Each structure stands twice: as C-alpha cells, then as structure tokens.
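RETRY 2/3 - previous attempt timed out on the joint model. Re-submitting the same 1110-residue input unchanged.
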Amino acid sequence: MVEKLKAIPLGGLGEIGKNMMALELADDLILIDAGLMFPEEDMLGVDLIIPDVTYVEERIHKLRGIVITHGHEDHTGALPYVLPRLRLPNGRLPPVYCTRLTKGLISVKLDEHHLLKQADLRMVRPGDRLKLGRFVVEIIHMTHSIPDSTALAIETPLGTVFHTGDFKFDHTPVMGDPPDLMRIAEVGRQGVLLLFSDSTYADTPGYTPSERVVSETLDRIMANAPGRVIVATFASLISRIQQVIDAALKNDRRVFVTGRSMMKNVQMAVEQGYLNAPGDILASLDKIRKLPPEKLAIITTGAQGEPTSALVRIANRDHRHIQIQAGDTVVFSSSAIPGNELLINRTIDNLYRLGANVLFSRIANVHVHGHAAQEELKLMIGLVKPRYFVPVHGEYRHLVMHSAIARALGVANDNVFTLEDGDILEIDKNGARVAGRTPADFVYVDGLAVGVDQVVLRDRKHLAGDGVMVAIVVIDRHTGKPIGRPDVVSRGFIETEMSDDLMEKARDVIEQALAGKEHVAERGDFNTRVHDALSRFLFQETRRRPMILPMSIEV
Amino acid sequence: MVEKLKAIPLGGLGEIGKNMMALELADDLILIDAGLMFPEEDMLGVDLIIPDVTYVEERIHKLRGIVITHGHEDHTGALPYVLPRLRLPNGRLPPVYCTRLTKGLISVKLDEHHLLKQADLRMVRPGDRLKLGRFVVEIIHMTHSIPDSTALAIETPLGTVFHTGDFKFDHTPVMGDPPDLMRIAEVGRQGVLLLFSDSTYADTPGYTPSERVVSETLDRIMANAPGRVIVATFASLISRIQQVIDAALKNDRRVFVTGRSMMKNVQMAVEQGYLNAPGDILASLDKIRKLPPEKLAIITTGAQGEPTSALVRIANRDHRHIQIQAGDTVVFSSSAIPGNELLINRTIDNLYRLGANVLFSRIANVHVHGHAAQEELKLMIGLVKPRYFVPVHGEYRHLVMHSAIARALGVANDNVFTLEDGDILEIDKNGARVAGRTPADFVYVDGLAVGVDQVVLRDRKHLAGDGVMVAIVVIDRHTGKPIGRPDVVSRGFIETEMSDDLMEKARDVIEQALAGKEHVAERGDFNTRVHDALSRFLFQETRRRPMILPMSIEV
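RETRY 2/3 succeeded.
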C-alpha cells in the first residue's frame, strides 16, 4: 500500500482567522494551530467562530498532538472549545506543544474556562524536534508581531512539510532574535515537499517595515505630548507593549495599564520575563493620581473599538478611573480588522469631541502589521523551494494572489493548490491531488452554546430587518371557531404613534382571513392563512416585512 | 436692530452624507443641498437617512429656495423626502436651483417618486447670479468626481459667504473645464466673511490625483485583457462612465450597460449630451451575445457590494444575462464607503472563485476619489482668505483636522468654528458665536415610513442579538387563574434540536412564576413576573437574553 500524506485545512483558508491545519499519515494525525475568528456583522448575536473538528473527532485515536505556532487568538483562541471535543481514547486531553510566551497566553485563556488543570501544555524551544507518531516536528524561530513565534519543519516519510505560521522577516525585531534564515535555508536545501505559507498580506507590494519603526514614533509622541499619552493596542501585542514602556521610561513617564485582558497579559508577560518593566515604571492607580499628566502614559485595550473595552468606555465617559482631559494624546497603535472601521471611527470622533488629540495609523507611523508582504513571500518561497505549494491564512483573493506569486517563482502550475477549508489534499509518490472534502463550516459560539445553526441566524436577520408581529387567536376546541377578537403585538416593526390604527386593521385582516370557514382547520392551514393575509396587508401599508408568528390557542 | 446672519448645518457635519446647510437672514432663508446618507450596519432595517428639516418647516414662509451644488446622492438624495415637507405657504414646492447634469439626475429620482411634475427645478449656469430674497447666490464652476459641480459665492449685507461644495482642484478633468480659479481668487480679493469648505479628505496629505490617471489604467486593462472587461462603479460617476466608453472605443470593444440606476443615468446623460457614446458603441443584449469576449466591455453597478446590485448578482451566479467566464476581468473603479468593506471583499472573493481576474484600487490605479486633500484645502483657504471658517462635509475628526489647517494658515483661532449638525452659528457686526442649537438628528427612512424611532431600532438590535420568545398564558376571566399549560414559542433564539427540553422547562418556570397567587393580578404585574422569571432562567441555561413577550389572554 502506498504511503499517503493528507493535508486538511480546517480553518484559515478563505477567511481571516480560526486557523487550523490537520496533517494525516496512516495512523497518525497532528493539528497545527486552533484559532478563533471574530464574527462578521451579519452573524447576528454570535460571540465568536471556531473550526469544525468533526474530521479529527472521527479519527481521535490517531491524534498525536496539537502544535501551536504562536500566541495570537486566531491561532490559539479555539483551544478552550475544541480541547474538550478532542479528548483522547485514554480520557486525557491531547498534548498542546508551544513556546514559552505562547504557553503563558494560552494558560490565561484556559484558566478563564477552568480547563488549565486538565490541559496538557508542553513547552518547546526553537531547535526542538518533536516525535508525534511518524511526524517529526522541528520548531524554527520566526518573527511576527508577537515574540516566540515559530515556523515548523515537519519530516514525513514522503518528505518535509514546511509551515511558516504567521510571519514577516523582521531583521530588527523589538524583542528576541531575527528569523532563523540559516535553518530555513538548510531545510530548503535538503528539499521540501510542501510549503504552507502565510497569505494575509499577499495583496501588498514590497516589504513590511520592522516593528522598530514604531519605537521612534512612540518616543517622539511621548517626548512632545503636553499631557498624558494613552496608547491602545492588542492585549496580545506584547512587543508593542514593551515599546510603550520603553518610550515612557525614556521620557520619564510612569505607565498605567487598564483593560481586563491587557492587565492579565501584562502581568503574565512580566512574570514570564517577557516584559521588561524596571523598578516602579508600572504605576498603580493611587500613584498615577498623584502624578502630573506629562509624567503619565496609559496602555489600554479597545484599539478595535470593542464596545465594552476600556478605551471605548473612556471615549463614552463611563470609565471608572480615567476621564479624558485637555492635553491628552490618544494613540491607536493598531490597524482596523475589516468590519471594525465604524466602531473605531466612532471612538476616534468621541475622543476628539472630549478634546483629546488622536493619532492613528492613517495619519502617523504608530503601527506596523505582522505579516509578510509580496517581496518577503517571494523570499520565503525562494529559501524553501517547495515541490508543492499551498497558500494559507487569508481570504480567497489573498490565496489567489499568493498562488500567482508561487507560480511566478517557478513552482509548477499543477503543483500549486489554492485550497479552501475542508479540501483534502492527498500527496503520494505519484503526485498530489485534491481527493474530496470534509465538513469545515463555521462553528458559531453564542453564549454557552457551541453551534448556532443557519436557521437561527436567518431568523435573527429577519427580526433585525423589520421586527416581529405576534398574532393570537383563541379557538373554541369544540366548535373550532375563533372566540372574541384576535390579538396582535409587535416589536421592532413600527413606531407606536403610527401603529395603533394599523394594529386594529391588522386584527380585522386576521378575522377576515379566518372567516367563511365552518371550522378553522388544522394548525398548518391556520398558520398559512393568517401569515399570508397579514404579511400581504402589512407590506402594502408599510413596505416592511416583519416576521409574523401566528398562534392559535384552543380552549 | 442689527443684521444677523445665521448658518445652521442640518447635515454633513459629524457624519459623511445627508449634506444640508441653512442660511438665514431676517426674513429670508435658503438651503444648500439636500442629501441622503446610507445607514450604518447597526441601524437595522433602515433604508436611508435624511436631514431633519424641522427648523425650516417652522420658518417655511422664509424659504426662498434650495441650491444644489452637484448631482451626487449625498447632496440631492433627500429631495424626494423633504420637498413635500417644505411646501410653501402658496401651496407650491420650493424652487430647486441646479446645473444641467444635476437637474437630469434629480429628475430621474423625483420621477421615481412621482414628484417630477409638481417639482420646480430651475437650471442655472456658472456665472449666474440668483436673487433669493436678500441673498445673491453666484454659481462658480468647480471640479469634483462628477461634471457640472459648483461652488457658491453668496452675497449678504454682512459680507460674502463662500461654499465650496464637494471639490478637488482637477486641472485636467475628464469632462468639462478646470475649476474657475480666477473667479474664486477675485471673490477672495473682494473679501469673504465666511468659508464653508469640504473636509471629507482633510486627513489625507498632499494632492488628490486628477481623474485623468484612471483613463490610462482603464486603457491598459482594455488593451491587455484576454476576455471581457467588466467595470463596476457608481451610477452617478458620469465622468468615469465616459472614461470606460472612451477606453472601450479605443480598444475596439462594444459596451453593455447593466444595473437599473446605471442604465437610467447613462440614458439620461446621453440624452443630455453629457455622455459621448458615438455610433453603436453602446450595444444591446442580443448584439453583445454575438460578439467575442475580447470585443466586449460591461459597465455595472455594485461597486459597494450592494446585495441586490447587478455585479453582486453576477458574483452569486444569479444574473439573468451575464455569467462569469474564464478570461473575464472585473474592475472595481471605486473606493469602499466605510462599513461596506466586508460586502465588497466577499464580492471580490466570489468573482475570483468563479475564475475572474479582479482589479481594485488596493492593487491597481483604477480609482481616484473626488475630494481635496490637505494641500488643496490650503490652496482653497489661501485663495478665499475668509474671516470666519467652518469645515463642512466630514466626520468629526475630519472637521477637527480641517480646522487645524485653517488656523495654521492664519485664520484667527476664535474665528474657526468646528460645528456639528444643529449648531446655530450667528454672525453680526460684533462678531460670530454659536447661539444655541436646533434639532438635527438622523431621520430614518424605512419602507414607506419616514421616521423610525429609537425604540424600534433598540428593539431590532435586541431581536437581532438573541431572538425572541413569546410566552402565552390563557386566564379565566372569572377566577383570574391560568387555564391549562402556558405556551411558548421562540425564533432566532436557539437551535430546535437543543430547544425542546428547554421549552418544556420554560413552561414550568412560567407556571411557578404565576403560582401561589389566588388571582393573577393586573397585566403589568403579570408581565413583570413572567418576564423576569423567564429571562433569569434562560440566561442561566444559555447565557443569552432573548426579547421576552409575555401575553395573557382572558377567556
């Protein structure tokens, strides 16, 4: 029987986020990353989205472990939800392999979900070689917008699979070493069967600037700002937080940290020795109350305009400790995740209204992103020289553009596979091919329930558009005739001033719809008649189509 | 009594869109522009937003006319809704003054609303001086992303008010003449009391490129594309449509137009002589069916990813006449209106999935916007040299940045007014000041109803988040006791598989909530008890908070 290597993307191909890749070889299966994705605005009421792990559940006896490339939520955030579903036949949770900082960030999350004790987190270092069944996974140091990021060189009987993780080639990183180009080149020289490479910015020409450039901007801002400097960024952007602390230190400002996740991560990173916060640079609330504004810097969450975040509460004047005062400078050290633009713009405008000066990446160099642009993607392909190429991490257009780059660099046309979640790529001695699909839909998390189905979302969209009208008819169970006048109530449909008269008419419409029949037939017929008559009437009158819920009560 | 000039922004200051400015002098009042705004994603079910004209309605006897600066919907789109509200004491609709193309575009809209006959549209030309009460309005030729754009120099007893309209200084426009710098400078030299200037791109350094640059890109695309070239843009972007026709002509391609508003505007613009479409360049459907792909170009709506637009139907494979085929090139000749990014990206991805090559402004020079960048804003202020300055057309941050530019150019600090909709700016011999506010909220249009109130929107948001649960209890009108078991039904709340058991428990909860009382008290008490008990229970079980509608039926 010929050896077959299967690569099954379960997330991150065709969308940004919920990254997860399964590699399967006979009786061994490993997962790379387990990320979450934030809902798009038409996924109403959804808290977050995780990958569908059905394929792995059905082969749970093969699962040898989960390797996490770095500590961002779009690569780690699904762990609290999928780990319990991936319990091994021996009853244990599968081992999760990750570098030190990544382990720290994951621990914070698992702790919130009361899973830390049962979880099996194993720390790895660049250079380590993990034997996971017949997969041998080598951890390679890589640079991204968070320290301790890694790429993976995975030896298989068919050849080496190289996974870049999220990366950019940052030769002057703010924390840690530059990328291990040497080792990547070595692996490439020894021959690589298959390359998975980060496509997030495949539509961007040139090189992504080093994190370093932000330091200069932050330094200048802290030096010149007349009052406090409030910096909003991602809670997981540890190196950015270090840059803020360094700039504050240099300009004799103390730093106050606010925002739940920010506080947790900063504390963890200080304990782990990732954040260098000398002496009493991190000030407590009572301390900063005593300091003049020009001696203060504040680090906060809310760079995406998240409604409950510290910065948004500050902008809306309902933060417990921090009020905007004249002379404040607010820095958005971040870029907008598509879909958040409006929330971010509103927050910026509200801060201006309160008299703050606001700086964001459109008007100042206060952010660089963490993903390779086109020239870096070419460099990666040039170093790795893979036989087969699969672009990962990106919406479909990014994957298409990245595939074009790989072809331009000489990867054979038929060896470039622009896959999407659920495609099963099969590689053996005879070649590579897409051999079928497995379910890999969005799994919605809403409140306690994992799994909101399409019906629920469609109903929510309907309700959101034109509201709801409930129509109630009491029916005599003996005569089968309506008793008294139908009752109607609506929400989110029309203003009360306008509605009274309309509601009366609606009740007439229901009566007419049910009239002329000796016996109101079975529920189905009743519902159809009331529903059709009402919706026709309401659309005529208002051009709106509220959801209509006909209910018959037999007494 | 001292003469007082009042300027009241009723739209466009603090948001993008629904532009409207009122100028009042004793017994005379004029309006500049009457635009609509498209809803932001949290304004659920709202079709569009128009300015609140209460202030004008209360002074309707003063209204001398409405002057429209150019033909874009954010300056004209509210006319069908506000004109009927602004009927003059003599029973007529107020005169609307606009240039030729603008008149054509407005006519199309008013016709759709069956208002064209009663409307009083009056065509004006650059150089015309309109006497509107004691206001003398001079029409000045200006450049923007639509031909026939104008600025206004409005003489008042207190001095000249200069309104730029939407503008950029395009010295090589695709249609019509360059801006009338001469006349603007003259007006400036004679002295300007107050300048209203377009702030939409006040956060953008440098100059905005001429429309001309797009012609070269379109020409190259049409020359090199192996198959059809499908260009999506705004239906009102007449000059861009001309550029597409010119590029097609040059490359021996016939042009097919699709999308309702696009077809209407093209027809109008051709009739008006604005679009130059020689011979049979504009091909009918049966014609293009016979032509090879490389001989075809298609102009379509949908550049913003509007769900019902022609391009989106093409991308979703449900356009009646056009299916994407290999070799097609789709060009998004537009920029994203904030909030539309996701819809646009989805459309792009779907087109890629169908095998089309897609070009958009992020990766190709296929669009330039129509608003002045910072250097042009400086030039305008430098030419007009106003005593007072009010930035218009922009979100609050744009207004703040534009104000900073004006100060940097020497406008006295106290003479720069960063206003928002509803502020009443009062100018007299003694100076200028904000003298109170007038209502200028968003007026929502949903279906036939003008005016969806906040309650309706709040309810829709609640319904959208967690759905609705209706709880019905039949009560004996004599004993006042519940008859039988309560009934519950929910939508958009939870998956049916999970719900059956939950619903049974919910009915128990209702029974318990009403138990122990001899007589179920009046409705209010009934509602509170059922509502509170249910919401507490459902939140415990699901961490969701559906809208709960308790209903008691007495029989």
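The first helix of chain A runs from residue 54 to 57. Closing ticket.
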